[in-house]
């Protein structure tokens, strides 16, 4: 029994759950609302300005106005309106005013940006700015080169900038996808559109001195443009990302390709994604991701069949199975079987969303032959991308040390949870194959656990924490995933689980909540995730009595977290999401649904313990 007022717990849970249910979209799924992004807004303004500044004047003015209204007090911009200023976003916002020819009308804001950049980069000379951007991203050119390209086109890098910008080998895009690994491309296939477009604008402005390389690139222009046309989604948005699509449009427009179909479709996508306040989000939405998170949180309720009736669950089941990729993905050449973060055409399959969808299929409690078949295909997709180290990467089996193919503890644990909920629904030899894959993933988690008992996630962080990491999120997700496993798999690793639990208990704040790490201000998201994970461990009876696992301490931590959440939702203060999400290139975002989803899951698990 939890030492929490049951009536108050049930009352707040009912309110929070009701609010989450009310946030469904027209088709019964959840769509969510990502934070507006200064970086996406700046690149969209640049794309509109370079293609038809006069024709897009209203959108350009709206975007610049939003940037002026959301500049930080220090003169820079962060990735979200509540994020700290950073060099990538600030330099792109500064460039946007240049591309729009709006420096004079916004002189105070531009001067503030220049002062911030001068301090961050050591000066505003082209050399100082390029060095600062390259230092920010190291050997990964995926984002550094596009940023510098936009700055060059905006006149922010002097009269002769192209020699300072690393030329991207766009000609390599003519080779088959399977050879990219051996070609050692510095920009992986998920940024292929940027590789082609940005490589071409660099070639347009700065021909190689080597005549043979110049000839190869000249010949490759038409073929790579054709490839770019082939991989562009039907709605024009590459990866549903406003920034990536804008980079492509900016580059093609500056390379005398304003009328190219990729440019025009890209602009249509940019225009279609603008918000009423004049801003753009970093991505269209995370509809599949927030839908599976919502379903899986709500399904913890013993009366889930009443929370979501059979008709609603059937609709969600159809919506989810429709999102599963049935054929080879044209853009990234991913095998069939996975799910993307969105139901929009620009999404690509990834491990976190595939695992979440597989779990949701089971939790919707309408399992039949078709549903089982979809889940099996998803599990096989996950096992096929498992890295040699046993961990699960985001998109593809690893061949470079880039975020896309790096094993991640939270993704590995989410995959283990998916395996766990379907363990008794599949037959041999698949069951044995899943078991072998699960063992490798658990061993990876054992090796990747830090000495203090924590795990660090890949796609989530906390700006206030050391190295902007979020061990609270990572550890909570790993423990939640492990709690889904059958006891025989978990027995050899009980000490690992105990150490993770002890870490979460140790870093709990005095107010009962959790931040992203020890001593960081408590947030709804992080508090709910930590309390939820510890509550899930209390349900693993075999852990009780294990060396170092103090049931009393864990219960007290859960109670403290639960009380903090209850008090937070009972106050009159606005429920604002925290920017703990990390997008491509480590860009911060927040999602309005996260506090409600995570709180429902944690409070419901506590209510179950109180039964």
What structural keywords apply?
single chain, about 600 residues, mainly alpha, Glycosyltransferase, two-stranded antiparallel sheet, 4 strands
Care to describe what's here?
With 611 residues, this protein is mainly α. The protein folds into three domains: 1-30 and 452-611, no CATH class; 38-281, Glycosyltransferase, CATH 1.50.10; 285-448, Glycosyltransferase. Helices cover 55% and strands 2% of the residues. It contains 25 helices and four strands. It has helices at residues 6-22, 38-52, 57-69, 87-99, 107-121, 126-137, 141-153, 180-183, 192-205, 211-231, 242-254, 261-272, 287-298, 304-307, 310-323, 351-363, 369-384, 409-421, 430-448, 471-482, 487-490, 494-506, 524-538, 551-570, 594-609, and strands at 36-37, 280-281, 581-583, 587-589. Strands 1-2 form a two-stranded antiparallel sheet. A two-stranded antiparallel sheet has the order 3-4. Helix 1 crosses helix 24 (551-570), helix 2 (38-52) packs across helix 12 and helix 20 runs parallel beside helix 23. It is globular. The protein starts with 5 loop residues before the first helix and ends with a helix. The model has no long low-confidence stretch (mean pLDDT 94).
